[in-house]
Amino acid sequence: MKIYAEEYFLDKILECTREELSIAKQEAFFCPATQIPKKNGTRIIVSMDGQGKLVKLQRNLHRNFLSRLPVSPAACGFRKGSSYVDFLEEHAGSRYFLRLDIQSFFDSIPVESFHTFLEEYVEEKKGEDAMDIRREIVALCTVDQRIPQGFITSPVISNLIFRRIDQRIRKYCRAYYKERIRQIHYTRYADDMLFSSDTFDFRQNKGFKAMIGRILWENGFACNESKTIYQANEISLSGYVVGEDIHLSRKKLRTLNEIIYCFDGRRDGMAGSTPFFVKQGVKAQEVLREINGRKLRRADGQGISFGSLGAFNQFLAGYRSYLIQIARMDHGGTGFGRQLSGKIRKLEMIMDFLAKEMGDCDTDGRRQA
Q: What is the pLDDT confidence band of residue 195, given thresholds at 50, 70 and 90?
């Protein structure tokens, strides 16, 4: 895909006039930046007015142009139809693992690299009144010469800029051995880079990591050394364990098990096959208060609380989605797939119960007359 003319850029890509483009660019100067604490520093998030021109034009630019440009097969984040499980799946069955983290990922993306990248897809027109389309695109997607975290276009831009870096790393992985068989696997999810091999012990071959670091450095990026992980046999990342297969860690399952127990546990010493939450008189709001009182945490240690039944139901829907992804994988004779199927059925029962409860309540969660 290539943009040749101003008229096509405005009418078909941005779907706006020159005046609307000018207004949107001005909005970028007034987007507030928020510093969010994180381990070993802060993360700067730039917010946009959800009803402003800038949001509208960025969405159009993303849908009609940026999302249609090719990215590396190694990139699993910020892609439609791809998930964190896809990032991990290629490494299942490997013996040795190396995980690298790219430091200050979005802040490290050189704006000059974005402008250079666009040269391949935007034809420059000569003339006194000709629009510099590449400059206009860069202006829509940047603040203070940065690709800010929080802009709609930033994730896809990161994959586009990183495409050649990903390709170079993949080529290096393939060329590391003289054999034609690809023995080192590589995938990337945003700033997370994962390498694995059946035979290549990364800990015993530090030159490999040094070369990856050099490739990043030559392109304006750097490794966050504090997050480098070497593992053998299996590796745990974001609540998932990758080894012979991919399964959820105990921490990841702990939250789910506690939620299921709150709905389906034995109470007052009474046992039975019928889930207690379908018995007459049980109120979902009461169970939700108990769940919030347990001060549950995600696998990364972040606290979890729910302000409404609707928010809780959405959380369960998300949990169900990735449980289904994991359950569909081959878990051999471990029985893990059957275990997950049982948990999925419990979640669906709880979600059905919540949907009925919400149907009987008004927007404030109060029982309707």
A: very high
pTM, two decimals, is: 0.77
Core vs surface per residue 145-163: b (16+ CB within 10 A) or e: ebbbbbbbbbbbbbbbbbb
Q: Which residues, other chains included, contact 69 with Cβ-Cβ below 8 Å and sequence gap of 6+?
A: 1, 121, 160
Give the whole-angstrom CA distance, residue 159 versus residue 175.
23
Strand stretches in 86-160, DSSP E: 96-101
CA distances from 78 to 69, 74, 83, 157, 344 (A): 13, 12, 8, 10, 26
Which stretch of DSSP H or E encloses residue 351? helix 336-359
> 354 pLDDT exceeds 70?
yes
Q: Which residues contact 265 (CB under 8 A, 6 or more apart)?
A: 276
Burial label for 221, CB within 10 Å (0-12, 13-18, 19+), is buried
Distance (Å, whole) CA 148 – CA 173: 31
Is the distance from CB of 66 to CB of 153 less than 8 angstroms? yes
User: Which pLDDT band, with edges at 50, 70 and 90, does 265 fall under?
Assistant: low
Confidence band for 331, pLDDT divided at 50, 70 and 90: low
∠161-140-109 over CA atoms, to 5°? 30
Distance CA 35, CA 37 (A): 6
- For the chain, give me the number of helices (H) and strands (E)? 12, 9
Task: Answer whether 151's CB lies under 8 Å from 141's CB.
Answer: yes
What confidence tens digit (pLDDT) does each residue in 38-64 have?
A: 666 667 777 777 788 889 999 999 999
3-state class of 165 per DSSP? helix
Q: What's the gap between Cα 276 and its chain centre?
A: 36
Q: Amino acid letter at 188?
A: R
CA–CA gap between residue 142 and residue 113 (Å, rounded): 12
Separation of alpha carbons 58 and 24, rounded Å: 9
How crowded is residue 81: how many other Cβ atoms within 10 Å of its Cβ? 5
Tell me what percent of the residues of the chain surpass a pLDDT of 70.
Answer: 83
Cα dihedral sign for 223, 229, 235, 240?
Answer: negative
